[in-house]
Write a structure and sequence with these properties.
By secondary structure, the protein is of the alpha/beta class. The chain contains 13 helices and 13 strands.
């Protein structure tokens, strides 16, 4: 089986990490040949190549870069793939017009609606990372028989090794060694809704004046979130850390992990927190309830409930449970491979 993976590699986030893990697992799979087409110099290109995956790196400066289009077509002609698998919207548009006779698969990672003329309606199979994503696609008219749910997965051992790095976030922020710390790791974009998290910090200040909140990520809303922190007088309690390349180490030093999203395909970073045995509090957005039990969830946008749940998690941490096998990289890759085989 020949598989051409396509990802624009424009950023390094949870979706790109899933592509890396998929490439890593398929390198180990007998009878599977694969090539990854992605942005030259990207973190994805570097990490996938380190796992032994064949990488065709291309300039990819904007959404529909003709240089990437040219290299992708060359790869299809030379490699003659059985499957072309697109992993983001930019990659999908190009893959659809370059796939030729190959079967076309794409992974849908967000619980956003798709338009009537969307390319997502012109695939041999859509892989949805959660039942919530599948339900959105089905509601938009894509036949349920053409959608397969394959959940994200991580390598718990890899996460533990990464968390062993010493970040010393409390020392960096000038906090007491034992100061309780709630951590959020997510891009600073609208659907991650860190504004609700910041307002939760305001609600928590009176009950837990020692509690600090750290937000790791970059994005278009950094300026408005900084202004919101200042408006609420929380500059000494809520800390915007920017992009952290040792996110697992940050999660490992936290006392509770928090997600405040209002839309979320699955929230794979929650899996990292669970693998590290951290209490998790999150909104019941998208596919998050498929990972966490109801007692860990609050309504979307409810900052007061989020605050109360975080305080409760600090006071009464739940016992650690074994990490679920269905959310491992191995299980994810086997699920994707089953989709490929079903199309051939």
């Amino acid at each position: 089986m020949r598989v051409l993976q396509v990802d624009s590699g424009r950023e390094w986030r949870g979706g790109q990490n899933q592509v890396r893990l998929l490439c890593r697992e398929l390198v180990r799979e007998p009878g599977v040949e694969q090539i990854l087409v992605t942005k030259r110099g990207s973190e994805l290109a570097r990490r996938a190549a380190a796992h032994g995956a064949a990488v065709t790196a291309t300039p990819w400066g904007w959404s529909f870069d003709p240089r990437a289009w040219f290299r992708l077509n060359l790869a299809v002609v030379a490699f003659k793939p059985d499957i072309v698998h697109a992993h983001d919207a930019h990659a999908l548009w190009m893959a659809r017009h370059a796939a030729g006779s190959a079967r076309l698969v794409a992974t849908r990672r967000v619980d956003f609606h798709v338009g009537r003329s969307s390319t997502w309606r012109r695939l041999d199979r859509v892989i949805a990372i959660s039942a919530a994503v599948k339900n959105i696609l089905a509601a938009d008219g894509i036949p349920a028989t053409e959608i397969t749910v394959v959940s994200d997965g991580i390598d718990p051992d890899e996460v533990h090794r990464a968390a062993e790095q010493l970040l010393s976030v409390r020392a960096r922020l000038g906090l007491p060694a034992g100061a309780p710390l709630a951590v959020n790791v997510a891009a600073l974009v609208d659907h991650k809704d860190q504004r609700t998290l910041i307002r939760a910090a305001a609600h928590a200040r009176e009950a837990r004046p020692d509690l600090h909140w750290a937000i790791a990520g970059e994005g278009e809303l950094k300026g408005s979130l900084t202004a919101e922190i200042a408006r609420l007088g929380l500059a000494d309690r809520v800390h915007l850390l920017g992009y952290i390349d040792t996110a697992d180490a940050l999660i490992g030093e936290s006392d509770v992990f928090v997600m405040s999203s209002k839309e979320e395909g699955l929230g794979s970073v929650i899996l990292n927190a669970l693998a590290l045995g951290k209490p998790v509090v999150a909104t019941a957005a998208g596919g998050i309830p498929e990972i966490l039990p109801p007692e860990s969830l609050v309504p979307v946008g409810d900052s007061e409930a989020l605050s109360g749940k975080v305080i409760d998690a600090l006071a009464h941490p739940a016992p650690r449970i074994p990490y679920p096998e269905r959310f491992t990289a191995r299980a994810m890759a086997q699920g994707v491979l089953a989709v490929y085989r079903s199309l051939l």
